Amino acid sequence: MTNIYWPVYKNIESELVKLTYDIHIDDNQINVYSSKISDLILRSAAEIESVAKELYKRYGGNKEKRLLFDKDCIKFLNQLWKLENKLVIISSSSCFQSQKIITPFIKTEKNLSNKLTYGWNNAYQHLKHNRYQSLHLGSLKYLFDILAALFILNLYFRDEVFEITQNSEVPQNMGSEIFSIKIHKWRSYDAEGVYGKNEDFDECIYLTKKTDEAHKKMIESTKAMLKEQQEMFLKHPKTLEFVKSGKLKNYEGDNLMWDVLGENDYWNIINITSEKHTLDSKDRKMEGVLNKNLI
């Protein structure tokens, strides 16, 4: 699918990059506002509306009439992907504010109806309906926040898959000159093939994992290895003698194979079967994919 939204995002981002050279962006300047910044916020909001509605339809949203980008679309996408937990890092060397972490889909401000909404959305709605009285909301802070929200939605719209090799990793900046993301690095699968998650899993927009084909082969290989280990254990002379002695019915330990065979014979079986069922590198391919809360 042609991505018409990313070039627009990059165009808006380039305007912010220019501002970082015109303004020394630190904690003293983060609330600086102007008509230029207000315009960038409004342009970003228009893009968010479009991308959010496209994603809503793509992923099964079924409301058609009076579709609202925030109350319907982003709410729906948040339920799918836990957007409220996703964070973006300000990584530009031209940005000096102390708060480098943005979680744009956490509702932090109340709107005119006294209901919680996203800070950037509150600024957008005020600027849209009463710019003259709300010009102070056209600030750098809200521009960073709304651009971070647009950045995240664009990544989900792109839905790009990255092949991981010795010479290539998942890019943390994802093509942005301002932002970077957290990537959940694969660490393990359990015996059932379930993906191991760190505490920050929900904060990560991308994750690394085995490809589906490699994962399937890993599960098959593990099952075959465990089956062979069991067969070798049951046929071992020490096991046959243990069963014959009648000691099995009174066994209360938690590792029968270790206790019956002893350390040397136990590891001999483990090493033989592990080496036999080790997958070739071509069967261990890794990839970086969007964290859609499906793993």
Q: Percent of residues in helical segments?
A: 40-55%
- Low-pLDDT stretches are none
First-last Cα distance: 24 Å
Principal-axis shape? elongated
Question: Number of DSSP helices?
Answer: 9
- The ordered H/E elements are HHHEEEEHHHEEEEHHHE
Helix vs. strand class: alpha+beta
Q: Let me know the average pLDDT.
A: 92
Indicate the radius of gyration in whole angstroms.
27 Å
Q: Give the strand line-up of the largest sheet.
A: 5-9-8-7
Strand content: 5-15%
Q: Give the number of DSSP strands.
A: 9
Number of domains: 2
Can you give keywords for this protein?
295 residues, 2 domains, four-stranded mixed β-sheet, 9 helices
Descriptive notes:
Helices cover 48% and strands 10% of the residues. The chain has 295 residues and is an alpha+beta fold. It folds into two domains: 5-158, no CATH class; 182-295, no CATH class. Strands 5-9-8-7 form a four-stranded mixed sheet. Strands 2-1-6 form a three-stranded antiparallel sheet, covered by helices on one side. Helix 2 (35-58) crosses helix 4 (119-129). The longest helix has 24 residues, at 35-58. The protein is elongated, with a radius of gyration of 27 Å. The mean pLDDT is 92.
List the SSEs and their pairings:
Layout: H1 5-22, H2 35-58, H3 69-81, E1 88-90, E2 101-102, E3 107-110, E4 116-118, H4 119-129, H5 131-134, H6 140-158, E5 162-164, E6 179-181, E7 183-184, E8 206-210, H7 212-235, H8 237-244, H9 256-276, E9 286-290
Parallel strand pairs: 7-8
Antiparallel strand pairs: 1-2, 1-6, 3-4, 5-9, 8-9
Helix pairs in contact: 1-2, 1-6, 2-3, 2-4, 2-6, 4-6, 7-9
